[in-house]
Amino acid sequence: MAVVDRPSLLRTDFDRQIGQLFMVGFDGTTVNDQIKSLIEDYHVGSVLLTAQNLKSAEQATRLVLDLQNIAYQAGHEIPLSIALDQENGGFNSLYDEVHIRQFPSAMGMAATRSTKLAKEVAKATGQELCAVGVNWILGPVLDVPANVRNQSLGVRTIGDDPQEVSRYGVEFLKGYHEAGLATCGKHLPSYGDLEVLGAQTDVPIIAQSLQKLSQTALNPFRTTISQGLDAVMVCGLATIPTQVDVVNACISEHIVQVLLRTDMHFQGVVLSDWSETDALIHDFGVESSIVMAFRAGYDVVSLCGSFTVQQGAINCLKLGVENDTVNRPRIEQSMQRVLDLKLRCTSWEKALNPGGIDHLMQLQPSHASLSSAAYNSSITVVRDQKTFLPLSTRLDTERELLLLTPLLKPLPSSAAHQKLNAAPDGTAYDQTSVWDSSSSIMSGERIFQELGRAMSRQRNGRVLHTSYTANGLRPIHEDLIDRAGAVVVVTADAGRNRYQNGFAKHVSTICRMSSISNGDGTEKPFIVVSVSSPYDFAFDQSIGTYICTYDFTEIALQALVRILFGELQPIGALPASTKNEQKLQQSTQQHWLVENWNEERDSYPLELLLESVRGQHSSDPESILAGVSSRTFLLRCADVEEAHFIVRNSNTKELYGFCSTYYFISTAVGAIGSIIVDPNKRKLSIGRSLYHRAMRMLAQKNGIKKYQLGTRIPNIFLGIPTVDTAEHRRLRQWFVNMGWKIASSQMRLNMILRNLPTWNPPDGLSHTLSNPDIKFDLVYGMGYAEAVLDHVRTHSTTGVYEIYQLALADKASCGIIRAKRPEDGSILASLVLYKSDSKLAGFVPALGDSKVLAGGISSPVISPSISDPASLMQGLLLLGIRQIKKQGANAIVLDCIESDKAVGNLVALGFSTLHTFEEITCETSTWAMIS
User: Which family would the database say this protein is a member of (predicted)?
Assistant: First the structure.
């Protein structure tokens, strides 16, 4: 349709002015006679769409376009405002599994700890709404709960810290604006602190005074107003009579005119909550309610009742103006505010040409990725006291996993729910469903069937699933718990559904008692997952492992499964109240003075500290610290900036803790090489104090690109040691609590070839040296540095360049084996050989005892252009082993193998694993987002 200019009638046509001040809803998924009449005959300027109006993105686009076409043909000067609630999580009006992405709720987004991610999600939500023709989103929610354990909005709120709500509210606002939507903050003054003093049918009151609200709950409104909030929705609550002038806030001149307009300097549109308007009309009648609302200062009144009520309300406002109950300038002022809002978010060109499905398809790939990132970052492990996570390390595939879930109404957005609409009815609640990884037939309780199926696929094992109700623990539950190897209980708003609280605690007790009945002291892993309010067990320490997903959409549960089985590391954090409680607990921990390392003063005390730690592993001559001295930590390399920190007793000079850090200039990587704490001083926050000091220092390095746990030089800790399973789990969780994303970790190994004097190469291996396209040689000294270092700089990772520098500078004790292309001499691969008396050996503790270990091989670097890197690697190693064997060595240490994929070939050569580690890295851009 061609868009043509039309004369302005709004300035002269009173009926058109009145129509702009109403937002109406209607029944049905297509245009009916009632909404058509409201637009054509009553000139209504805004339409509110709800879930009852919308079936899919395609249908929504068609419906909105039909509404705009009616308005255009009816002579509307400016398009309709098409408003929608789209809060994400479980609170969306528009669902479409194919074209509309699912994103976490407001509280779920705050749990990601990333305002950047919050803005991106808001923008993506806005882009999808704009594509179907919506131009006004009724959000963000800015309520601040005063009592998180008992509040009606649940995860629709960002949290209970006014500053946090303000911060995320602004980012949501910016995202919506960038997408092209008008915004509406809600619900002023607040749904955050309600009390019902009389019968349950009474209108609740705001428990706090307006003065108290002004200091807390109103701050997010002030902040977003200053950032360009387009509209504010006033909720209909009775307030304390001494504070305002009328029974209900939604008809209070004090709330709108004094608090909002005068105190907060808000110049945008004030909108009524349609449910409260309908309630007022029921209590006071149409005429009185409409006149009260506009006299209170509303610009737009929402009406989603019957067509008769909507007609009556519009006519009542006309009558109120005509008899001077509502003055005409007041109407014109509100109309201008509405028009200003519309001009910021729509035009006829935009309204009559929505992007529709084609645009949504273009957005889908990036939005799907964003959705996964948001959910992956939001899932929160509140506690894991006994390191039951991940289940993959605590539950053999032969053992059964039990899933216990409450009966809940599925979210409309669930793909599983859509599939189940066509499925036969499920069995009774106490009927057990069993999923094997190969099973395609599902029966029994259906709400969480996709969760059960995903858990079965992820663990490649058997999952039992049954539901529970207010009837409590039944014999079938007890039987299943007894046979299961681990139990997961799901809760949803257990604070209001108290039977869920009691059920979870009962099952927890049974699982704890399993350690007694088993006779082996092992406790059956028990995990509670809250899929709605995170406050079900947030403050209840009796639930030792507690996870929050903030909603139970399909994608949220997919992220949950990945966390349960260790494929994804949780980085979500609970809202402010719980974080504040955790901070309070942490404040009882000691905060130690961390000092810079002083070599002269601290070398001997460090030797004593190392000896104390080694004393725990005196029976293991090959423990990680077996050959470590204070000198091992000191690289003294021009291309590495090192800084080390200590916690000490200044009187006795005793070291309680030591931390080494390195900044590798060549790769711009900052690494924590070690954190060592006196065994008698553990759990006193010494390690935490050292860690935070080290990270603050590394963060100040100009140009730093990445952080890393573990260093290949010095070769002490290549990452988190994995020798002791329980200790590894504890250390992993410690670093997760510090904000590290363990999902990005890589295995690193030190290997050893023993009995070298009697070693012979495997049959047929020598042919790897006879390739005419490759020439091998052994070189020494800085005369070869330029070509070798250029090759290493191009194809290696952090720490390797420095190892080659040390080797080239030590001609007497180190050499470089090169594999070259004969025709041009270009280097295809290389590795370092070194003796136990070399400077390089001083940074590899496993070579510390020359009576046992007298040679080392380090840092193979192979060009990615090589078609068969495994064979070339074997050739390099074969030459290296022969060379070291000639020197009379008893054994060879091969340090820092980067992938366990190479282990098979190395074992074939005679190597065995000496130490294994989990190296963790994190880009600084990612760290800034999650920390």
Answer: Belongs to the glycosyl hydrolase 3 family.
